[in-house]
Amino acid sequence: MLTPIYALILAGGSGERFWPLSRRARPKQLLRLVSDKTLLEETLARLEGLVPYERTLILTNAEQESAVRKLLGGFPKENIIAEPAKRDTAAAVALGTGWVVARDHAATMLVLPADHVISNRAAFQKTLALAADAAEETGELVTIGIKPTWACPGYGYIEQGKPVRLRTRPDNDAIHRVVRFREKPNLDLAESFLRKGNFRWNAGMFVWSVPTVLREFNRQAPELADFISQLRAPKNFEKALRERFSKLPRISFDYAIMEKADRVLVVEANFDWDDIGSWRAVSNYFETDKQGNAANCAVTALDSSNNIVFQEDGTTIALLGVHDLIVVQTKDALLVCHRHEAEKIKNLIGKLPPELQ
Questions:
Q1: Angle (nearest 5°) at CA 192 between 190 and 196
Q2: φ/ψ of residue 227, rounded to 5
Q3: Which domain, by its residues, includes 88?
Q4: What is the pLDDT of residues 247-301, one digit of tens each?
Q5: In which band, very low, low, confident or very high, does the pLDDT at 197 lie, cut at 50, 70 and 90?
Q6: Is residue 274 included in any domain, yes or no?
Q7: Does one domain contain both 248 and 283?
Q8: What is the DSSP string of 145-189?
Q9: What contacts 74, CB < 8 A, 6 or more positions away?
Q10: How buried is 222 (Cβ within 10 angstroms: 0-12 exposed, 13-18 middle, 19+ buried)?
Q11: Are 157 and 200 in contact (CB under 8 A)?
């Protein structure tokens, strides 16, 4: 790696799946779900020694901006930007690209979600460094693939093709050409992907050189490319953001760019990874008793099993004769639902009083 690395951290989100702990102004990445740090703080900590704060941009939205700034008091204020309107990830990546281009038009750039759980920092940085080398040497878009541990129908998949060897790392076998991206499959199709062995989960982590991603924006998304050119104009960043961002198309980066690109590589992650998309997933990090009750607090349970309990201030929860429930108590709300209905929590949000959403 010879060129400087910049990082774009995507820290928006709607805060629906972890209600009542999460709210629109406090989504998943601002929660302390598995440690005493928020997921956003953990994401920043993983980059220490690889990308300095001054080359890191955190992109959030207007509803969450004040909470992000309060949380990250020591982070450069000018490196936290709130999207003026809700658009999808293509607009967010274009905004981040414009920010980087205005500083270094030849840099290497990482795009990382702010809401994943990754405990092995050294392995994480080793994978990203390899991906950065691949992006610099080949001039291709690079994505990070996670080796599936089960046939999850909730993730997108990447089909791996032939291995690619770098001149600088001839012995490394973790890089492959991407054959195609596959949308979230049904369970049968996900199981077939697992059996074939050459499919990886798409974790939404990307690495590229700035010239490479600019080429792809120009080729595939001219409107977004024009927005980037407006951002990079001297002293025009704030004006372009204010006037142009809300008019951009609402489209994902995967669909706008990655799925149509003809030169994409995937680097297999050699680190642990968890998207923790629901209370059921978070419960894997809680203490569990012999009856399968998982909790972050003290629980007294009688004739109760396979329940998930989260308590914001550590008050003891008592369970009697109940099974397969999710019980979440915060200062102003209480959720009780069947654990198999966890994916429907977001459908509940619109029925709640506005102050609880």
A1: 120
A2: -60, -45
A3: 5-268
A4: 999 999 999 999 999 899 999 999 999 998 889 999 999 999 999 999 999 999 9
A5: very high
A6: no
A7: no
A8: EE--SS--TTS-EEEEEEE---SS-TT---EEEEEEEEPPPPHHH
A9: none
A10: exposed
A11: yes
197 and 307 both lie in a single domain: no
Spatial neighbors of 326 by CB under 8 A, at least 6 apart, are: 279, 280, 307, 308, 335, 336, 337, 338, 339, 342
Residue holding tokens 């440690």?
35
Using DSSP's 3-state secondary structure scheme, residue 221 falls into coil
Q: Which residues pair with 111 in a beta bridge?
A: 8, 206
Would strands 294-295 and 308-311 be described as parallel, antiparallel, or unpaired?
A: parallel
The yes-or-no verdict on residue 329 having pLDDT over 80 is: yes
Residue 123 vs residues 20, 137, 164, 246, 269: alpha-carbon distances, Å: 34, 21, 20, 38, 8
Which own/partner contact pairs does 47-50 have at CB distance under 8 Å and 24+ positions apart? 47/7, 47/112, 47/125, 48/121, 49/125, 50/5, 50/125, 50/128, 50/129
Q: Could you tell me which residues are beta bridge partners of residue 320?
A: 302
Whether 14 shows a pLDDT value over 80: the answer reads: no
Q: Is residue 104 part of a domain?
A: yes
Last residue within a domain, chosen from 213, 237, 268: 268
- Omega prior to 27 cis, within 30 of 0: no
Q: Do 223 and 283 belong together in one domain?
A: no
Asked if 26 and 66 count as a contact pair (C-beta separation under 8 A), the reply is no
Over residues 154-180, mean pLDDT = 92
Which three-class secondary structure state does DSSP give residue 130?
A: helix
Does some domain include residue 273? Answer: no
pLDDT for 27-83, tens place per residue? Answer: 999 999 998 999 999 999 999 999 999 999 999 999 999 999 999 999 999 999 999
